[in-house]
Amino acid sequence: MLPPGSTIGILGGGQLGRMLALAAAELGYRCHIFAPETDPPAADVSAAHTRADYADTAALSAFAQRVDVVTLEWENVPCAAVRQLAGQVAVHPGAQSLEVAQDRMAEKQSVEWLGGRCAPWAQVDSREALDGAIAQIGVPAILKTRRFGYDGKGQARLHTASDADAAWAAIGQQPAILEAMVDFAHEYSVILCRGADGTMVDWPVPVNLHKGGILATSSLPPPALVREQAPAAVALARTVAEKLGHVGVLTCEFFACRDGLRFNEMAPRVHNSGHWTIEGSETSQFENHVRAVAGLPLRPTALVNPRVTMTNLIGDDVADWPRLMSDPAAHVHLYGKGEARPGRKMGHVTRLGK
Ligand code: AMP
After folding, report:
1. pLDDT of 177-203, one tens digit each?
2. C-alpha span between 37 and 165 (Å, rounded)
3. Cα–Cα distance between 124 and 146 in angstroms, integer?
4. Residues with Cβ within 6 A of ligand 1?
5. Residue 220: beta bridge partners?
6. Rounded Cα distance, 241 and 55, in Å
7. What angle is formed at CA 279 by the lines to CA 291 and CA 16, rounded to 5 degrees?
């Protein structure tokens, strides 16, 4: 167990790192952020910030000497950086989790190999391959870049085969997958945490509502169809964590279809759909992640109230802060970001009870 006063290095400086650092502070740890941005939200609440590129091997080496363990809050940290750090200090989760989660194709292949079901998909490495994929998958479909997609970015929808040129151009002609549009009833996520000793906990499953590809709300309890499918989804996510030797929080997103569940994607980290756990669960995703990384036992994850709703504050939503701050039922979290650009996650609000 990492003694109090030790330093946890965090790769990435966004709001997830900020909430991890706050949870780490409660357990008596310091955090050191490694991120290329000038004034990242996580650095505001951390002991130190190394401002450097993830390809800067000298900066990575100096960072490794100043921390006792390393974790990450952004899954697109280059695997090379994680491998270099792992030569000097323990890194959780490790490069194997990142490698799979960074590539939509590897992600889907791994999950299907483990018996999970995804939307029908095909590999697209060229404009010609897109025609073949359309013939195989049909339309409507979504073309998704294999790498660096998030919040609906790096995606283009095809309503008819004639949309192929525009879709290929829209995603920047990058290696991609074509995925059949799934007629889902709901979206939900399994959030689990695996300790260094292999023990696992998972949280009750929230139903997630997206607007424009960005998470808008996560709430519990989820509808009956999600409740029916949750045990199988949790079992699959646990198997994925086990096979990856993952340490820390792992999030798997699913579609609840009338004919069963379909895996969508995974994140090898704490997740926006788990922010409600700060007030809504006995232990937050952030605390259990810090515990896993620090080699502490994991704590229980039961709901403290049967009804919980987390609402994201996206872009201008944050202008409503005076009303939210005055609402005794609202647990307000603001991320300390300067400019409220459209689509930017500025904060979230959690409400317990009705
Ligand atoms: P993703 O980045 O893959 O999570 O996609 C962002 C959002 O787009 C998802 O949360 C869904 O709302 C929607 N979406 C993604 N893939 C599909 C699909 N195959 N069928 C229907 N909707 C999808």
Report:
1. 999 999 999 999 999 999 999 999 999
2. 35
3. 9
4. 119, 142, 149, 152, 179, 181-182, 187, 210, 213, 253, 264-265
5. 308
6. 27
7. 55
Give the pLDDT score at 307: 98
Using omega within 30 degrees of 0 as the cis cutoff, is the peptide bond preceding 306 cis?
no
Torsion angles phi and psi, residue 36, rounded to 5: -75, -15
CA–centroid distance, residue 175 to ligand 1 (Å): 18
Residue whose token pair is 């004034």: 39
Half-sphere exposure of 92 (CA within 13 A, CB side): 27
**Percentage of the chain exceeding pLDDT 70:** 100
Say what the pLDDT of residue 148 is. 87
Burial of 342 (0-12, 13-18, 19+ CB in 10 A): exposed
- Ligand 1, atom 5: nearest CA belongs to which residue? 152
Residue 250 in tokens? 């792992």
In ligand 1, the atom with minimum distance to the C-alpha of 181 is 20
Instruction: Tell me how far apart the alpha carbons of residues 254 and 145 are, in angstroms, rounded to a whole number.
Output: 19
Work out which ligand 1 atom sits closest to the CA atom of 210: 12
C-alpha 142 – ligand 1 centre gap (Å): 8
Using the mean position of ligand 1's atoms as its centre, give its distance from the Cα of residue 221 in Å. Answer: 22
Residues of the chain short of pLDDT 50, as ranges, are: none
Quote the crossing angle between the two packed helices 57-66 and 79-86, to the nearest 10°.
50
Ligand 1 atom closest to residue 215's alpha carbon, by position in its atom list: 10
pTM, two decimals, is 0.96
SS3 content of the chain, % helix, strand, coil (to 5): 35, 30, 40
Ligand 1 atom closest to Cα of 180? Answer: 19
